[in-house]
Design brief:
The structure is a homodimer.
Chain A (H helix, E strand, L loop, with lengths): L1 H6 L1 H14 L3 H9 L3 H9 L3 H10 L5 H7 L2 H10 L2 H8 L4 H9 L3 H9 L3 H11 L6 H4 L6 E2 L5 H11 L8 E5 L5 E6 H6 L6 H4 L1 E2 L4 E2 L4 H11 L3 E5 L5 E6 H19 L12 H28 L1 H6 L1 H6 L2 H22 L5 H34 L2 H31 L4 H28 L2
Parallel strand pairs in A: 1-2, 5-6
Antiparallel strand pairs in A: 2-3, 3-4, 6-7
Pfam families (chains A, B): CBS, MgtE, MgtE_N
Function (chains A, B): Acts as a magnesium transporter.
Subcellular location (chains A, B): Cell membrane; Membrane
């Protein structure tokens, strides 16, 4: 994999640019930037520390600022937009897609976003204001308004002539939408169908009915899973009265799919999914300290359990030496289950119909692995410390904790989801607290009864 | 989120189906299955325990088996294919895309895959054998061979007439590929361009040059990142001599993007990314026990460190009570950094040019959060145990461990990647071992010097 990164042309340019920046050869940097596509400049900005990022932004062609902004991840985009003068922002937003423009406007101070809106023509302003009226994470928030509509009662030939006259078709268009005189969506015709239809055939005969249109209020995760299952390239969006109001394209859906999948991984480590890798340390430290604060409580909970058995620990140091093993194994086993369940919930595989099966299965997995590792760890402890009772105690604690880890690993994420708490964010920490407390309780409790 | 899952129509059907299965109403199940799209049946199979899965498969229309297989995730597909008779497999694979067919054939016993190949017509067999000759995780392994080629010296009108005569255009086609008489790729023309071109214009005048074609050997992750950056819907694939050999479509790329993103999350928990949520317990237990085995070594390493200080632990039980706090905080802080770096490596943001910046930044984050939590935990310990020396010791250990966690969190994944070891798989465990060992060493070491 190391070679692949080094082969990546962006990495090579990144190195050239950062060397040129360090030695202050700004003209060279500007020339390098001019040779790059806007999406590659965006990648370069994301991969640069904040200070170089600002310099790079000054050196890019202002003509491309809009296109670059569209490609940036949220955190990085916010940082750059916050430093731009209102006039340059107005200039940059010209020609942006409605959804991206709405996103940028949302993150601006009220007076700046107003002045941007004021300088747009009436039709564009209306479209952007419509987009702004929908929450960001719904179909309405991610749709564009650049689609082509036709009527059902015309011939294919008329449509072809209309398209030639129009001269331009919006990006990622794979279908034209068929509407009636009230702008009701009644169907769509794929470009591929249009191209294989004889000129004298009426559109109504070859269009497909709009039986599965996306509504503006649909959650963006649901939109993504529909696109994924149906292999769509674009799809029309309708309001509650089935009026056609917009179009969602696969490139925006791909971003959602990547963000959702990354969200689980980042949340499980206690990070924001749009955390900027190259943010200033102070900003990162502040965000992450909250998560460490939650873990302090979990660690103190475990310490309080040990504290209850202070007398036992006082009598036999070997118990203190071994007491971290059982919680550690329980935490790892339980987090395997948590990760599995979080993915299952995210892709919609887990629901009421199979929760009971999953609980039984994961408990059984815990039982089997519990027996295996109880045997191994028991033997290790027996030969290390030469104490059969201690070996039996750690084996029992291991078995108990792994079974509980399996059950808690299924129950905690599902329960959190019922409470509308993100299982990816809180699941791992809650699980670890359970397995720490139970593991210590059983191990130290048994040691207190049989050894102290 | 809970409501969304319950609103999901598949979840509702899933409940109906599992109730009908339990009460043995197979005719009803068959009727439910008939009303579903192949991709929804695939989703249902993935969300069912293995036993119901087999019954459901028997009850689905064999005509749809091919389409359903194409939509299944690898682990589930393998399980079903393994149980199918060769004849039904041959029937099911009719009409499958080349890439999916190649995938299925790869997982079959030699003699079965041969008999499937034997029953195909010569041209199809040649295409599939070509696909089989490329590794699965390259452009060659994921491409299809269903594309349309045209010549550069014909008029748009000729192309339109050719398409109408052809009558069908492969799915997800957004461009026709322009080749010369030797099948060299020289350009492509988007369907949208074709539709807006006057009939008497030559293709050569409106086509775009093929300056960024994908080669068959390109890694599938690179293909995905190109699609994502360039917003492609499909792209041509060429061999080393620039002959056009295939086409990659966005639906296959979306699967790769989701798998790559899920891979990090699943690997970090020690799971295979195609682990089947509803696999039999024995199978899951066997796979996961390996990861627990790795953790046993890590836990024993930590225990050996404690063991070195058995004398100190013997003298003061409070040390044993508190000794888990510092490793726990170090592990959580370090894993935040590890998750950030793994994502940065996956999306190509981290390379030689910015590693040093990242090390300094994460060490600074560790310093700041170390100071904060050293102060808080020090105070807690002082008021809890009334021992100023003990409070100072735990504060010092906390600060040291969080700084080391930041540095190790950057260094370990990058180092693993250099060694060609997947950082998502091994990074978290290696980090935790480092923070456990260092945390215990510093805390118990200082306690031995100043308290024992």
């Amino acid at each position: 994999m190391a070679e692949i990164v080094d082969q990546d042309p962006t990495q090579q340019i990144l190195q050239q640019v950062s060397k040129a920046l360090e030695s202050g050869r700004f003209v060279h940097v500007r020339r390098l930037l001019q040779s790059m596509e806007p999406e590659d400049v965006a990648h370069l900005l994301e991969a640069s520390p904040v200070r170089s990022r600002d310099t790079l932004w000054q050196l890019t062609d202002p003509e491309l600022h809009g296109e670059i902004l569209e490609e940036l991840s949220e955190d990085v985009k916010d940082g750059i937009v916050a430093q731009m003068a209102p006039e340059s922002l107005v200039a940059a937003t010209e020609g942006m897609d409605t959804d991206d423009l709405a996103y940028v406007l949302r993150s601006l101070p009220q007076n700046v976003s107003r002045s941007v809106l004021d300088q747009m023509d009436a039709q564009d302003r209306q479209r952007v204001q419509a987009a702004l009226s929908y929450p960001e994470d719904t179909a309405g928030g991610i749709m564009n308004t650049d689609f082509i509509t036709i009527r059902a009662d015309v011939d294919a030939d008329v449509v072809l002539r209309y398209l030639r006259m129009r001269g331009e078709i919006p990006e990622a268009t794979d279908a034209l939408y068929v509407v009636d005189e009230n702008n009701f969506l009644i169907g769509e015709i794929a470009l591929t169908t249009l191209l294989t239809t004889q000129p004298d055939v009426q559109i109504s005969e070859v269009m497909t009915d709009a039986d599965e249109a996306i509504t503006v209020t649909m959650d963006d995760g649901e939109v993504a899973s529909l696109f994924e299952r149906r292999d769509w390239v674009s799809a029309p969006v309708v309001d509650e009265n089935n009026h056609l109001v917009g179009r969602i394209t696969i490139d925006d859906v791909v971003d959602i799919i990547r963000e959702d999948a990354e969200h689980s991984m980042m949340s499980m480590a206690g990070l924001d999914d749009d955390e900027d890798t190259f943010a200033p340390a102070v900003k990162s430290a502040r965000r992450r300290s909250i998560w460490l604060g939650v873990n302090v409580l979990a660690a103190l909970a475990a310490a309080s359990v040990s504290n209850m058995f202070e007398g036992t620990l006082d009598k036999m140091a070997a118990i203190a030496v071994l007491m971290t093993i059982v919680p550690s194994m329980g935490g790892v086993a339980g987090n395997q289950t948590v990760a599995l369940v979080i993915r299952g919930l995210a892709v919609g595989h887990i629901g009421q119909s199979n929760t009971r099966f999953l609980l039984a299965k994961e408990a059984a997995v815990g039982l089997m692995n519990g027996l295996l590792w109880a045997l191994i760890i028991g033997s290790v402890v027996y030969f290390w410390k030469g104490n059969l009772v201690l070996a039996l105690i750690i084996s029992t604690a291991m078995l108990t904790n792994l079974i509980i880890a399996g059950i808690a690993g299924v129950a905690i994420p599902i329960f959190l989801k019922k409470l509308n708490i993100d299982p990816a964010l809180a699941g791992g920490m809650a699980l670890t607290t359970v397995t720490d407390v139970i593991g210590l309780m059983v191990f130290l409790g048994l040691a207190t009864i049989f050894l102290a």
